[in-house]
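batch_manifest entry 22 of 60
target: ABC transporter permease
source organism: Streptomyces microflavus
requested by: lab member K.T.
priority: normal
notes from requester: please return tokens only, no post-processing; we will run our own comparison against the previous entry in this batch. if the run fails, retry once and flag.
--- input ---
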Amino acid sequence: MNLLRFAVRRVAEMAATLLIASFVVFGAMYLAPGSPASFLLSGRSASPEAVAAINAQYHLDAPFAVRYLRWLGDMVQGDFGRSFTYRTDVSGLLADRLPTTLLLIAMALTVVVAAGLFLGRIAAVRGGATDAAVLISTTIAVGTPSFVAAVLLQGLFAVKLGWFPSSGSGDGLLDTLWHLTLPAVALALYLIGMLARVTRSAMLEALDSEHVTVARSRGVPERHVIRRHVMRNALGTVLTTGGLIVSTLLVCTILVETAFSVGGIGQLLELATSTKDFPTVQAISLIIVALFMAVNLLVDLLLPVVDPRITLGTKGAAA
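--- output ---
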């Protein structure tokens, strides 16, 4: 299938999925117990007139379908509504906090790719004691949830040793990078183990393939065999886990940001959920869905580039 046609079709599917997701997100929030009006009143008793005024101000008195269509139209125009908690535009909150979360995810993803590929490569190539050591370490990593890693790293490197800040996101680029180092490692630890194991398995499979045997029989240096034939063939399998890795980062960043008090959208989502800040929860949820779908589209487009054996089929990228 033509690459442009494939991309256009996938973008159309993404738009349809976002539309369905928007309805689910909007409807699910209004099925939750309690109401925005009760939160806005902070538990104080109010006259029916006061409650009616609040409902009218936030369009809570309109029928569900009208509220949804009005909200959807505003979202399309970039208007995410007004936060119940902060009493300000949600778009302003997102503009302040989203860059921090994206930087944290980028740092964690860099650590995952660098460490995961390295560990998986040396385990497959060297074998023996090195392979056993990598398997043991990755088993520990995979068995350590992000919030547990956050607590352990914070207690050791921030509180006991004082090498890194224990909370906050810093001021300025370098200070922000310093503050986000421990959260990025905590976020990446589980995924390093997963990617290392995927890389190891893919490379071991490639090492047993016929074309690798032929290349070795022709006297091709081992380092070239590993780089050109083994690692390149394994990258296709590794790349298919990209969507899972990013989706895990998007979900786990909520826990890690809360543990380190990082002022990103993860911590904002946790607070907004606990306070029934509907507009904020809805906006962040849709952003996460959109990011996840964009990553999956990027992976599908890169697969044929990384591995020419993979072609774009009528239902996506298929070998």
